[in-house]
Amino acid sequence: MRIFRLLKIVFVVLRFGLDEFLLAHERVRWMRVPLNILLFLRNTDKPRAVRLRLALEALGPIFVKFGQMLSTRRDLIPADIADELAKLQDQVPPFPSAQAVAVLEAAYGKPLREIFQSLDETPVASASVAQVHFAVLPPQGIYRPREVAVKILRPGITDIIAHDVALLKVAADLIEWLWADGRRLKPREVIDEFEKHLEDELDLMREAANGSQLRRNFAGSPLLSVPEMYWDFCSTQVMVMERMYGMPVSQVSALRAAGVDIPRLAANGVEIFYTQVFRDGFFHADMHPGNVQVIATGQNAGQYIALDFGIMGTLTDTDKHYLAQNFIAFFRRDYKRVAEVHIESGWAPAETRVDELEAAIRAVCEPIFDKPLREVSFGRVLLRLFQTSRRFGIQVQPQLVLLQKTLLNVEGLGLQLDPELDLWKTAKPWLERWMAEQVGWRGFIKTLKAEAPNYATLLPQLPRLLHRYLTNEADNRNDELQLNILKQQRRYNTLLVLISMMLLGLISLEAYTFYMR
């Protein structure tokens, strides 16, 4: 099966004339002549951008997702290709409505008319792994008829993705085997991470839970709105959520005409991203323009709407801590601290010289400061950072791959909304405030309060546990071991005093807070 899929990829590449991308170099350009002779079904009468989009659609969901990501990076690809690939976000061919109805009736085990008051047969959006229809739920109890969006998984998509992922794993093995930097880049780990998130995306119950969590994280926020999930109608193949009314974020002229403050909208997008990453450690990892809308009218005008929660990223507290230190040091142009954090986190080898890594990072980053996004070639910056990481043996972190992809999406959206946006100045105050809350005295008090229940449970048990430990050890050990026990007892006593002092401090703080009220 894999060999047939590989042959299909080669055939599609040749059919749509994409060899002009691969064989454009003068050394291999001669190979295009025999290919033109051997293949009679070449579709080369359309512009290259159209042919690339058609080829990605023909190859399937993973390739469509790759095209979606590229469409937001107008600083990396020509404008004609970016414009055409943007159509992948809402112009992927839909599957027949009869199949959609069959999936719904199989999921609910009853006729469609008993579930929905009405269902639009024409999908409003068709993505790589699912498509969306608008519908109306009938009145039920205290609920009036509710307008909803119904997301339906594509039939047979699981097998298609399994085949493509298998090919990616073969490619990863070849990269590790043939390329000197292959092992350092950890392609197998990266693809395993990608596969895990794809599997999550194919379970619409999990996606609904992701959306529910994001909605809870931003409850009451003036920046981001997330649709409500209707759990009684959700399954692994169907997700039913509140219908949202917004305008695609890519329609900048229409948003401006509606009175939306575009510079403020761009800055709010940056704040939403950093809030998800550093406050929550839970972020939307597929933020291409097709998944982001904006409320254009009413009291919530200018508020973002998040859609499609199939790919969400998570970060541990350790990841967040090191990332925040990296970002803040970078914004302050403290390249020595950036180098130190890379070594402390284990991303760079322990034997790396700080001064050498500092100088290399400075050479890459210093030229891009104080420039608006439209004047920064992130493609060139990323290339130089990659060369630097290769020189110093810096390891690719698979758990951060989604974050890197999302950061590229955010930069692409920011560039599209406001080319004058200063990404650094917008993010720096927010990150500094967050770090102060995490590692300053506020962070200490916050941690102390969070751990107070554990201390309250542990403290009464310490004397009994310590007595039991000392009694048992004294009966079975010699004098030398008893001496060690006494030393251990002193350590426990010290720990008990410290915990008591912390509890007293917490009680005093709570008393002071109550008194000040």
What is the helix fraction of residues, given as a range? 55-70%
| Distance N to C terminus | 70 Å
Summed up, the domain count is 4
- Assembly category: single chain
Uncertain segments of ≥5 residues (pLDDT<50)?
24-28, 511-517
- How many helices in DSSP terms? 22
- Give me the secondary-structure category: alpha+beta
Task: Write down the overall geometry.
Answer: globular
Rounded to the nearest angstrom, the radius of gyration is 28 Å
Strand content: 5-15%
Give the mean pLDDT.
Answer: 76
Biggest sheet: strands, sense, closure? 5 strands, antiparallel
Extended strand count: 11
SSE layout:
Blueprint: H1 2-15, H2 19-22, H3 32-38, H4 48-59, H5 61-71, H6 79-85, H7 97-108, E1 118-119, E2 125-126, E3 130-137, E4 146-153, H8 157-178, H9 182-185, H10 187-201, H11 204-217, E5 224-225, E6 238-242, E7 247-248, H12 252-257, H13 262-280, E8 282-284, E9 292-294, E10 304-306, E11 312-314, H14 317-331, H15 335-344, H16 354-365, H17 378-392, H18 401-417, H19 423-439, H20 441-458, H21 462-476, H22 479-516
Parallel strand pairs: 5-10
Antiparallel strand pairs: 1-3, 2-3, 3-4, 4-6, 7-9, 8-11, 9-10
